[in-house]
Amino acid sequence: MINIPKGTKDVLPSDSYKWHYVENTAREVANLFGIKEIRTPTFEHTELFLRGVGDTTDIVNKEMYTFNDKGNRSITLKPEGTAGVARAFIENGLFSGAMPLKMYYITPVFRYERPQAGRLREHHQFGIEFYGGNGADLDAEVILTAYTLLTKLGLSVELNINSMGCKTCRQAYNNALKEYLKSSLDKMCPTCQSRYEKNPLRILDCKEEGCKQLTKDAPKITDYLCDDCSEHFSKLQNYLTLSGLKFKVNPYIVRGLDYYTKTVFEFVTTALGSQGTVCGGGRYDGLIEQIGGNSVPGVGFGMGLERILMLMEATGVEIPKEKGIKVFIASAGDKANEKAFELCYKLRLNGVVAETDHMQRSFKSQFKYADKIGAEYVIAIGDNELTENKVNVKKMADGTTVEISLDEIVNYNF
Ligand code: ATP
Ligand code: MG
């Protein structure tokens, strides 16, 4: 017996309706906000993520599925959705079209992490990417897209926002943070010790309890923002307030990726233990340039669909079942079986969800089966029905029957 790889999951036929519901709602919300789907490959040249995600991030340092293909190219399975979209944006010359360009994706994401509840090695994200606009109104719209989707899904989660500043003000903040942490360097986890020189901001994102303690009173980046970043941040808050969104300024959220500038945000819940971030995003004005394009500002988010589904389950959100079988045609006897087979196919061609028996069951068990699969109507065909060219259409909900001619079935208005 070969088992499923660690950190991956099957979605079984009995559960796939939940995924359809979440994905369809995401597409609906994207449509409302004028966002079009983009699909990019599941794997890219490793170099794209080294440059686009950044070589001081956990993703690049520890979590990537990287291998050499048979042509000896270094290939990496998508560890996030943004870099591929940015590559496609440049490669397809999308920058010469009308701006802003609003795109969304639904994609598998691969990260070599320690599997636990809400943390998988293959998970799925719904994400959006807006290119071209540099105003806080666009940041607010990105946040509103996530908020609208979460609300439509019946979820209430807390919105945390922060600004990571730009190259200029982040440098001043990095210095202040390093100064503050200098004396505790030896108490930090080894990863944070190496972050200290390379990317001190990342220490704020550490999940080790010891490091969390060391940073809990650290200087706040919001106290170091330059005028431009500071104005951008207050405009964002104004747009969110205008839209009636509640939010918390959390000066310690820095997000795990290197490309963020100015706005960063997270939607978090306490209902999922330590895997409480269901959506994270922000602005990345330097990304397109970093992977070889012209300077084009961008803003977006990634939302973890497994965590969304877990949260829906944990908070008792009822997910509507998809439409089931309309008509089940039960039959007994060779001729009747043939008729049932033929009618079932013809009904389907007419757009009616029909089913018939494929297990040589008795009439009684066919009725039981029809009930189990939730058929709305059942028609039984035996020798009598064939001779008289008449059948009873039974409505399962109330047991009422209507007699129609066999020839009418295909065009009957069920
Ligand atoms: P975390 O801090 O939980 O590791 P992250 O900052 O690495 O999250 P992002 O890269 O922003 O996460 O990914 C966007 C969203 O994808 C997260 O908010 C989360 O909902 C989901 N996500 C990230 N990693 C995983 C994973 N290994 N398994 C399941 N969902 C994940
Ligand atoms: Mg992570």
How would you portray this structure in words?
This protein has 14 helices and 16 strands. The strands form 3 sheets. Strands 1-5-6-11-10-9-7-8 form an 8-stranded mixed beta sheet. A 5-stranded mixed beta sheet has the order 13-12-14-15-16, with helices on both faces. A 3-stranded antiparallel beta sheet has the order 2-4-3. It has 414 residues and is of the alpha+beta class. The mean pLDDT is 95. Helices cover 36% and strands 21% of the residues. The chain folds into 2 domains: 16-166 and 226-314, BirA Bifunctional Protein, domain 2, CATH 3.30.930.10; 327-411, Rossmann fold (3-Layer(aba) Sandwich). The chain has helices at residues 16-32, 46-52, 58-63, 82-91, 136-152, 167-181, 190-198, 209-215, 227-242, 287-290, 305-314, 334-349, 363-372, 383-388, and strands spanning 36-37, 43-45, 65-68, 74-77, 101-110, 122-131, 158-163, 248-249, 261-268, 277-283, 298-304, 327-331, 354-356, 377-381, 390-395, 401-405. The longest helix is centred in the N-terminal third of the chain and has 17 residues, at 16-32. The structure holds adenosine-5'-triphosphate and magnesium ion. The site of adenosine-5'-triphosphate (ATP) has 18 residues, from strand 6, strand 10, strand 11 and helix 11.
Write the layout of secondary structure elements.
Blueprint (H helix, E strand, L loop, with lengths): L15 H17 L3 E2 L5 E3 H7 L5 H6 L1 E4 L5 E4 L4 H10 L9 E10 L11 E10 L4 H17 L5 E6 L3 H15 L8 H9 L10 H7 L11 H16 L5 E2 L11 E8 L8 E7 L3 H4 L7 E7 H10 L12 E5 L2 H16 L4 E3 L6 H10 L4 E5 L1 H6 L1 E6 L5 E5 L9
Parallel strand pairs: 1-5, 7-8, 12-13, 12-14
Antiparallel strand pairs: 2-4, 3-4, 5-6, 6-11, 7-9, 9-10, 10-11, 14-15, 15-16
Helix pairs in contact: 1-5, 5-9
The chain binds adenosine-5'-triphosphate and magnesium ion (MG).
